[in-house]
Amino acid sequence: MIAFDYCTPTEYVFGPDTETRAGELSKEKLGNRLLIVYGGGSAERSGLLGRVRRSLTDAGIQFKELGGVKPNPTDDLVYQGIELCRREDLNAVLAVGGGSAIDTAKAIAGGVPYEGDFWDFWAGKAVMDKALPVGVILTIAAAGSEGSGNSVITKIDGEIKISLRTNVLRPKFAIMNPKLTETLPEYQTACGITDMMAHIMERYFSNTPDCEVTDRLCEGLLTAIINEAPKVMADPENYQARANIMWAGTLAHNGICGCGRQEEWTCHAMEHEISALYGVAHGAGLAVVFPAWMEYVSQYNSDKIIQFGRRIFGVDSAPEAIAELRRFYSSIGMPLTMKELGISSPDIELMNTKLHRAKGAVIGNYVPLDGTATAKIYELMSLS
Ligand code: NZQ
Ligand code: ZN
Which one in 25, 49, 93, 177 has a CA-CA gap of 20 to 30 Å to 10? Predict the structure, then answer.
């Protein structure tokens, strides 16, 4: 194991009807003048927003609203939110939704106290050292943003999708009612499952030796997700399975699976180029990227992939491990190729150029990859 700092200040408030505590928790941890940030309408339709507004009003909290966040959220709404907070003198942000609403809320929170352009932080031109406090009411188990310090935003000009990671943006609280995820379309449930598995695997495929505890944590979570997934897919109203999947999504990405080891994140970087350009769901993109990456890197370093196969699927070789993973993705309705993702002629050259412009000439740790290698991986995804 290598040395680490692990900070997880978020209070998780988990269970049925927990959204009715939004007012009490906001008053204690956020302040009395909030901006609520939400997505394209699911939270309004389900009645959740109504319950949240009531809870805030009952607690004496004033608020303004910014709706309309789209999946793979863009910088335009962040600028609007920053402007609104400054104009209305709002001192905290409450996200109601999934990764897209939460990441927008975090970006607004980081941008308000900064005099320059908020994008400076994402572009690596400035380091964020303060932000307005952020609270979360989660409606989809997927991105893990409710417990992470990450915010992934796409700059419309140039279609540049970047993930910023800083402890400053970790939410003060996350309200997690698994029942709220019962209204998710099947495809989004499956995308969420794929994304949380990828968050674990990006930490698992590491060359750092002697990480028995984090290895076993990762394997335990992956096994639990694979066992619970068919239950939620078959019965979207299975509360216990929804609850297990929701908690797994948080633990997958709040940092605990990465303690003491070097992390990977090549597949995420490669996927972000796909969703930035083609607007696909991030989880679905990962179902295409991850097995292709494993196929390529296992030619050079197969140790951890073989261990993954043995301990997760009970198979003995890297090709069998990859085949099992593909079989699982397929079983929950995920695509396996660019074509199945709806991209008939992917612009590999453009994605690859943008990837290395953002991440440098060589990316990754498990097997460091140059531009020729990542182009081959994009090609593997485009076969058939
Ligand atoms: O916009 P609404 O109407 O709410 O609909 C959303 C959206 O269409 C819908 N939805 C969410 N909860 C629902 C629901 N529909 C019915 N019932 C519910 N309870 O689901 C769709 C997807 O929502 P979104 O917030 O985009 O999903 P997700 O949580 O997967 O977030 C994806 C974004 O997070 C980023 C991704 O790149 C992508 O931009 N990520 C953020 C991370 C982080 N901050 O730590 C890490 C991840 O690796 C990821 O990159
Ligand atoms: Zn992800």
Answer: 49
